[in-house]
Automatic annotation (TrEMBL), chain A:
Family, as annotated: Belongs to the ABC transporter superfamily.
Protein name per its UniProtKB record: ABC transporter ATP-binding protein
SMART domains: AAA
InterPro entries assigned to the protein according to its UniProt record, in alphabetical order: AAA+_ATPase (IPR003593), ABC_SmlMolc_Importer (IPR050093), ABC_transporter-like_ATP-bd (IPR003439), ABC_transporter-like_CS (IPR017871), Mo/tungstate-bd_C_term_dom (IPR008995), NA-bd_OB-fold (IPR012340), P-loop_NTPase (IPR027417), Transp-assoc_OB_typ2 (IPR013611)
Protein source organism: Rhizobium herbae
SUPFAM superfamilies from the UniProt entry: MOP-like, P-loop containing nucleoside triphosphate hydrolases
Positions of the ABC transporter domain: 4-234
Keywords noted in UniProt: ATP-binding, Nucleotide-binding, Transport
Molecular functions (GO terms): ATP binding
TrEMBL record, chain B:
Keyword vocabulary terms for this entry: Cell membrane, Membrane, Transmembrane, Transmembrane helix, Transport
SUPFAM superfamilies: MetI-like
Natural source organism: Rhizobium herbae
Record-given protein name: ABC transporter permease
Keyword Transmembrane helix applies: yes
Length: 345, 284
């Protein structure tokens, strides 16, 4: 099979399990983002794929070959570190040529490839500059070019954009995605920034406590989160307790709602509703009744905080659909069945 | 941060104390030595103020040129041996657990507390025929009979490297601790084996530190005068040995001072050359 496959990969540090039985298949040419809070094991997993850490269990296969114990330098990868790790004693061109020099490529080929990569990252003519004279964004590009100079089988990036300011980061996300699509290279990025993952990835892998909670396309993750952790970690959401009473009616926060089913034989569950899917109406039938406690008008979006039976529900709307409410006013909260995700308790 | 240039005399106040220390403990003794090197020696004891170049003239001979050449060569050899041994050692040390590092550093510091005399006699025992390390090799069946390894050039070199090694490690240690460990990891992901990564990344990234360490050990080794006498033959005696001999046993202070001044000048010249070569390498 072409691509990367992880089978039951486990990493234990003493009694602490950093990565627990991870199974993941990354088809050739896809862009995967590993997303999770700090300490969730995503960086350890990436380091095992790179060979910088050895798994204590399981196997890693690349294009069908078992590479679990192959030393890092024989894996033919390209990796970008969080610190970038550009070599301070080499110029921009020498940094990019480093993987070629190590493999004793002819000097002319090295030079040709460096020029090619420099124009790809929009830094043509920078070959002879010392890396210390570059800006943050330029260093970032040099680190990417260096990792790509041998056309690696795998392109790994560990929090690559975290050192950049917000604007540059957004621009680099788009650039990185376009570059990956142009080269068609299998890419794995570790990040804790969900916007970054949503922007770039074909597949988002959400991790927590050393385990994969969900691996799916960004929109699937957002629309159909597998559990409350994923629903809460990706974007913001309202998590509401729902119950089926003895008569078979579904209640949310103790109030009956129509049209929602928790599934057969489930009496208790959690509903996840994105704030932009919450509609506010006049209090009445079929809607949860609540009271507006706060309105945050951000210009581009308006967030309305509604208190329903002691729980806060947030509704987000655009200025065009501005709800006509004010603080202290009773409102009805409509939960449409097709946007509510039922998550097992 | 930009600092204002001092306006009034009082602004130089903080410099007063270090300047005084430098004058009292360095400039005055050094100036005295330069002055004495031009004085005239009185037969059978002391010297009287004068201005004559005979001390320097006497120095210009094939014999002293040979001694000077050997002294410089020995100091360079010690510096190179120390740095070549200490870089991998310190590199591995910085990658150990903190506790292990502390134990090693304390052990190295304890070597510094040994006087040159003790080091010299310890090595002369170790290199001797009757109680030396060759007896162990005989016991292990690697040698047919024990033999003395001293006096010899190898013994002098070993003793001096042993003495200078802790200094070398202590000078290299901070730079190697500060070296970003992801640099070697990056080199490995880019296709360099750990050994190749060490030589293509760690060593070049530390070039300035290595030059500074070489100079430091070189100067340190140049001043050694006991070990060459304890472990070497007369042809292994350095200029420092001759200076001691002239100053203490022959009571010829002016000549000893002249040799010392000459040694300082040659040393400064070599250090300047090294620094200039380093600058050129940087610009290229």
């Amino acid at each position: 099979m072409s691509g990367l496959a992880l089978n039951n990969v486990t990493k234990e540090f003493g009694t602490f399990t950093a990565v627990n039985n991870v199974d993941l298949t990354v088809p050739h040419g896809t862009f995967v983002c590993m997303l999770g809070p700090s300490g969730c094991g995503k960086t350890t997993l990436l380091r095992m794929i790179a060979g910088l850490d050895l798994p204590t269990g399981g196997a890693i296969r690349l294009d069908g070959d078992d590479i679990t114990r192959v030393p890092t330098h024989k894996r033919n990868l390209g990796m970008v570190f969080q610190s970038l790790a550009l070599f301070p004693h080499l110029t921009v061109g020498e940094n990019i040529a480093y993987p070629l020099r190590i493999r004793s490529a002819p000097k002319e080929d090295q030079k040709k490839r460096v020029d090619e990569l420099l124009s790809m990252i929009h830094l043509a003519g920078y070959a002879d500059r010392p890396v210390s004279k570059l800006s943050g964004g330029q260093r970032q590009r040099v680190a990417i070019a260096r990792a790509l100079s041998i056309s690696p089988k795998l392109f790994l990036l560990d929090e690559p954009l975290s050192a950049l300011d917000a604007k540059l980061r957004e621009a680099m996300q788009v650039e990185l995605r376009q570059l990956q699509q142009k080269l068609g290279i299998t890419t794995i990025v570790v990040t804790h920034d969900q916007r970054e993952a949503m922007t770039m990835a074909d597949t988002v892998v959400v991790m927590n406590r050393g385990e994969i909670r969900q691996a799916a396309s960004p929109i699937e993750i957002y629309r159909r989160p597998a559990d409350t952790f994923v629903a809460d970690f990706i974007g913001s959401t309202n998590l509401l307790e729902a119950e089926t009473d003895s008569a078979g009616r579904v209640t949310v926060l103790g109030q009956p709602v129509a049209g929602i089913s928790l599934g057969p034989n489930i009496s208790k569950a959690t509903l996840s509703v994105r704030p932009e899917d919450v509609h506010l109406t006049a209090p009445g039938d079929g809607a949860l009744s609540g009271t507006v406690t706060f309105v945050r008008d951000l210009g581009g979006t308006i967030e309305t905080f509604v208190d329903v039976a002691g729980r806060q529900i947030i509704a987000v709307s655009t200025p065009r659909a501005r709800p006509d409410v004010s603080v202290g006013q009773p409102v009805g909260v409509v939960l449409l069945p097709d946007v509510c995700v039922v998550l097992a308790k | 941060m930009r600092r204002e240039t001092p306006q009034r005399l009082a602004d130089y106040g903080p410099l007063f104390f270090p300047a005084m220390m430098l004058v009292v403990f360095f400039v005055v003794p050094f100036a005295t030595m330069i002055a004495v090197s031009f004085f005239q020696r009185q037969q059978g004891g002391f010297y009287v103020p004068a201005f004559e170049l005979s001390n320097y003239q006497r120095f210009i001979s094939l014999f002293f040129a040979n001694v000077l050449g050997f002294s410089l060569m020995l100091a360079i050899a010690v510096a190179i041996c120390c740095v070549v041994l200490a870089i991998p050692f310190t590199y591995l040390l910085t990658r150990m657990a903190r506790k292990v590092q502390i134990i090693w550093l304390v052990a190295l510091l304890s070597v510094l507390s040994l006087s040159e005399v003790i080091i010299g006699f310890a090595w002369s025992t170790l290199f001797s025929r009757t109680a030396g390390i060759t007896n162990l090799l005989v016991m292990a069946g690697l040698m047919s009979e024990a033999k003395a390894l001293l006096p010899s050039f190898g013994a002098v070199l070993t003793g001096m490297v042993y003495q200078a090694f802790p200094y070398t490690v202590l000078v290299l240690y901070p730079a190697l601790v500060r070296l970003d460990p992801t640099l070697t990891e990056a080199a490995r992901t880019l296709g360099a084996s750990p050994i190749k990564a060490f030589f293509t990344v760690v060593v070049p990234a530390l070039r300035n530190t290595i030059t500074a360490t070489l100079i430091m050990v070189f100067i340190f080794a140049l001043g050694s005068y006991l070990l060459p006498q304890l472990l070497g033959r007369p042809q292994h005696w350095t200029l420092s040995v001759l200076i001691t001999d002239q100053a203490i046993y022959q009571s010829n202070m002016p000549f000893a001072a002249a040799m010392a001044v000459f040694l300082v000048l040659v040393t400064l010249g070599l250090v300047a050359l090294t620094v200039m070569a380093g600058r050129k390498g940087e610009a290229a």
